[in-house]
């Protein structure tokens, strides 16, 4: 008898169909709509393997509804949607997608740096609104990115890829991380800083740290107050790392040059969210890894884990 696999979203058929060799597959038929929680709890009752996106919460409640579950594959590198202690308690393995979205996410961070500093979305809105009447010296002037200081909070794979890109812009790189990156310091001249120093000294603060109990609300009122009045804040990790109320209040007081957000505490962000009323907030719908190559590679990493499990082979990219 084939193992039962449940997939919480409609993924590309050419990636899913070959798995029919190993699995009896059921799939939520919607590409865009998240499976309602009660349907997910029903669906997991019989499955041995579950393929989820970052929007599906795999917690104690779900696991208690899934007596046969052995493996969860997560279509993301971040796994804050998975309760790891609960997984251990139920003896379930999990895999994620490290490595393959590093460059696409670091590229997007630089897109946000340039978009915020040089007011690119605002300038485009200006043109489309028919406001462009002439060229004049101080029209839509922004901040330079080159020859400034970038402070990266979270120096994992993606943080380091952002830092390497910053060298090309002649930026001084400060970083804050749980562990020192001595090799990167020696090789590229990146400088370790305390969180406080980094916030005080950076022109651009970039959040790349994972989202967990230690980083919830890491950037709140006090931390925002430490930043330079004309600094830019970028977040391409997870929304809950920034206190959005404090951020709105800070921006509303005229502090900070701009903010670039690819992630929000609640996604999709509500259209009446106060942050969306501010012209110097560049907001994107969580597209850090949204290149054709990165998304295909992510699907393929999950596919490989599923194919390996289906054949009784060792699984790579296990979350410990
Ligand atoms: C991840 O993989 O964690 C990203 O946020 C989604 O691409």
UniProtKB/TrEMBL annotation:
It comes from Lysinibacillus contaminans. The keyword Oxidoreductase applies. It comes from the Bacteria. Pfam families: 2-Hacid_dh, 2-Hacid_dh_C. This is 2-ketogluconate reductase. PROSITE patterns: D_2_HYDROXYACID_DH_1, D_2_HYDROXYACID_DH_3. Belongs to the D-isomer specific 2-hydroxyacid dehydrogenase family. Residues 110-288 form the D-isomer specific 2-hydroxyacid dehydrogenase NAD-binding domain. Gene3D superfamilies: NAD(P)-binding Rossmann-like Domain. InterPro entries: D-isomer_2-hydroxyacid_DH (IPR050223), D-isomer_2_OHA_DH_cat_dom (IPR006139), D-isomer_DH_CS (IPR029753), D-isomer_DH_CS1 (IPR029752), D-isomer_DH_NAD-bd (IPR006140), NAD(P)-bd_dom_sf (IPR036291). CDD domains: GDH. PANTHER family: 2-HYDROXYACID DEHYDROGENASE-RELATED (PTHR10996), GLYOXYLATE_HYDROXYPYRUVATE REDUCTASE B (PTHR10996:SF283). Keywords: Oxidoreductase. Residues 7-319 form the D-isomer specific 2-hydroxyacid dehydrogenase catalytic domain.
């Amino acid at each position: 008898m084939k193992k039962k696999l449940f997939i919480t979203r409609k993924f590309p058929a050419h990636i899913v169909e070959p798995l029919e060799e190993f699995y009896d597959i059921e799939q939520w038929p919607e590409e865009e709509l998240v499976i309602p929680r009660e349907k997910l709890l029903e669906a997991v009752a019989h499955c041995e393997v579950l393929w989820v996106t970052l929007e599906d919460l795999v917690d104690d409640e779900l696991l208690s509804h899934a007596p046969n579950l052995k493996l969860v594959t997560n279509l993301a590198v971040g796994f804050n949607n998975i309760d790891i202690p609960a997984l251990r308690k139920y003896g379930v393995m999990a895999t994620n997608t490290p490595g393959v979205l590093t460059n696409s996410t670091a590229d997007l961070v630089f897109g946000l740096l340039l978009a915020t500093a040089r007011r690119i979305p605002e300038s485009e809105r200006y043109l489309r609104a028919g406001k462009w009447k002439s060229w004049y010296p101080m029209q839509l002037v922004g901040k330079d990115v080159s020859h400034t200081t970038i402070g990266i909070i979270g120096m994992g794979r993606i943080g380091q890829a952002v830092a390497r890109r910053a060298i090309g812009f002649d930026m001084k790189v400060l970083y804050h991380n749980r562990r020192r990156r001595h090799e990167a310091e020696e090789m590229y001249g990146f400088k370790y800083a305390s969180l406080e120093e980094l916030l005080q000294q950076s022109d651009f603060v970039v959040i790349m740290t994972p989202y967990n109990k230690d980083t919830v609300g890491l950037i709140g009122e006090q931390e925002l107050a430490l930043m330079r009045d004309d600094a830019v804040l970028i977040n391409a990790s997870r929304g809950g790392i920034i206190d959005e109320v404090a951020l709105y209040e800070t921006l509303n007081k005229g502090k900070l040059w701009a903010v670039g957000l690819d992630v929000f505490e609640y996604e999709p962000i509500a259209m009446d969210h106060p942050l969306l009323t501010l012209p110097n907030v560049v907001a994107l719908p969580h597209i850090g890894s949204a290149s054709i190559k990165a998304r295909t590679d992510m699907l393929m990493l999950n596919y490989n884990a599923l194919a390996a499990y289906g054949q009784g082979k060792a699984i790579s990219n296990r979350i410990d």
